[in-house]
């Protein structure tokens, strides 16, 4: 497997959290696209790259150890982007205002792999939920 960029790894994390419950909601997919368009970490990252990364992630997740592979890639992120990866996962999980048990479990696994404290994760999750609330 060729080297995977930091941006591709972040996309893999977002696609994985969306796919973990076997139901990739339209709101989640739209949010992934918006995140890639607006966050500085994705500056210069094209929509073609996003589509290719999402397809590659889907192929990885189709394997028996696919989720472990994605978690391993996430664990290889630079220290300064580990909280970003978790925040993006929480953001996508909250996008449809229905965080499933599978998504919660993946967030726990990601927290452990990225060595982020429960307190920081709770704050990131709360912020994600707050951004998606409606009146």
List keywords for this structure.
about 140 residues; mainly alpha; TerB-like
In words, what does this structure look like?
The chain is an all-alpha fold and 135 residues long. The protein is 70% helix and 0% strand. It is built from seven helices and no strands. Helix 1 packs antiparallel against helix 2, helix 4 crosses helix 6 and helix 5 runs antiparallel to helix 6. It is globular, with a radius of gyration of 14 Å. The termini are far apart. The model has no long low-confidence stretch (mean pLDDT 92).
Q: What is this structure, in a nutshell?
A:
This protein is mainly α and 135 residues long. It has helices spanning 6-19, 26-38, 47-61, 66-75, 82-94, 101-114, 118-132.
Percent of residues in helices: 55-70%
CA distance, first residue to last residue = 46 Å
Please tell me the overall pLDDT: 92
- CATH-assigned fold name: TerB-like
- What is the CATH level 1 assignment? Mainly Alpha
Largest sheet: none
Beta-strand content bin: under 5%
What is the CATH architecture descriptor?
Orthogonal Bundle
Task: Supply the helix-strand structural class.
Answer: mainly alpha
């Amino acid at each position: 497997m060729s080297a995977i960029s930091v941006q591709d790894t972040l996309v893999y994390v977002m696609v994985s959290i969306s796919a973990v419950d076997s139901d990739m909601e339209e709101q989640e997919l739209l949010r992934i696209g918006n995140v890639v368009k607006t966050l500085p970490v994705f500056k210069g990252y094209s929509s073609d790259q996003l589509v290719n990364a999402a397809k590659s992630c889907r192929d990885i997740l189709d394997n028996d150890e696919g989720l472990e592979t994605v978690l391993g890639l996430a664990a290889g992120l630079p220290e300064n982007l580990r909280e970003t990866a978790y925040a993006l996962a929480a953001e996508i999980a909250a996008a449809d205002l229905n965080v499933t048990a599978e998504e919660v479990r993946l967030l726990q696994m990601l927290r452990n792999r990225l060595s982020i404290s429960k307190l920081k994760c709770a704050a990131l999750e709360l912020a994600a939920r707050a951004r998606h609330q409606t009146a």
